[in-house]
Each structure stands twice: as structure tokens, then as C-alpha cells.
Design brief:
It is a single chain. With about 150 residues, this protein is mainly alpha-helical. The protein has one domain. It is built from 6 helices and no strands. The N and C termini lie far apart (about 40 Å).
């Protein structure tokens, strides 16, 4: 289930939303659609739902991703969950406040880029962390392309 959710938020839902928006609603420039829908799904919904999970069940992230059962790690994971819910809420709301898409994409580039680098530095990654590494790096690249395209247009 974890793999399907990650794939949906990082690729399937944004691409389907871009296609529907462009085809059904006439969309707009492709770059704007990429920003809107990747920020909504890959930043907003993904971080919001991950944050809820981290707040409600911090032991899952601590054990499954970071391979620790240290009770102190749960406190840190819950605080990460609060940050993820906050960032995710802003990402979701950016759909209704399009001026927020650019700053949220910068946040996502820094957050996902740094997380991907940190995961890559762990030579003992498990399968779940490898999936997190790939998805974090992918979203960082999409956000970088969107930001560079937006700032140079």
C-alpha cells in the first residue's frame, strides 16, 4: 500500500490532473500546470497525509524508515508530523491561492532535496527508505525545473 500511495502522489495523480486540466478545462501553460498540480499532490496532499500518519503513529516512521525503536525518536517524528501537516496544508491551499505555488515549490525543493541527499548518504537504506529517496529526489527535480522555468520566463 505504501508504494502505491507514494507512486500516486509523486507521479500518477499530478500527471492525471495536468492532463485533465489541460484537456477538459483548457488549462494554461504547461509549466503553470506542472507547478499547480505537483505542489498540490506531491507537496500538499502527500505531506499532509504523511504528517497525520506521523502524528498518529510515530513508531511506524521511526521503525519503518529510520529503523529505530528508541522512544525518543517518536517525539521527533511527531514534531516532523506537525511540520508536514503545516506545509501540506499550505500546499493544498495553493490550489485556491495560486500566488502561493512558487514559494511552496521553493520550500519543497529545499525540503525534498535535502531529504534525498540525507537518504543517499545512508549506505544501509532499507527498501522503504530507498522508495523515499527516489520520490524525494524526483519531487526536488520537478520543483527545480518549475522554479527555474518560472523565474526565467
Amino acid at each position: 500500500m505504501y508504494y502505491a500511495i507514494v507512486l500516486a502522489f509523486m507521479l500518477v495523480l499530478p500527471l492525471v490532473s495536468i492532463a485533465v486540466d489541460a484537456w477538459w478545462f483548457g488549462g494554461g501553460p504547461l509549466l503553470a500546470l506542472v507547478g499547480t498540480w505537483f505542489v498540490f499532490w506531491s507537496v500538499g496532499v502527500r505531506l499532509f497525509t504523511a504528517g497525520i500518519r506521523q502524528i498518529a503513529d510515530p513508531a511506524f516512521t521511526a521503525k519503518a524508515i529510520f529503523e529505530t525503536t528508541d522512544p525518543g525518536a517518536r517525539i521527533v517524528v511527531q514534531e516532523l508530523g506537525f511540520a508536514n501537516v503545516a506545509a501540506g496544508a499550505v500546499g493544498i491551499l495553493s490550489f485556491w491561492f495560486p500566488v502561493w505555488v512558487l514559494p511552496v515549490s521553493l520550500y519543497a525543493l529545499i525540503f525534498y532535496g535535502a531529504a534525498a541527499i540525507k537518504h543517499l548518504m545512508n549506505a544501509n537504506r532499507n527498501r522503504l527508505e530507498t522508495v523515499a529517496t527516489i520520490s524525494d529526489a524526483w519531487i526536488a527535480v520537478v520543483m527545480l525545473v518549475f522554479l527555474v522555468g518560472s523565474l526565467t520566463a
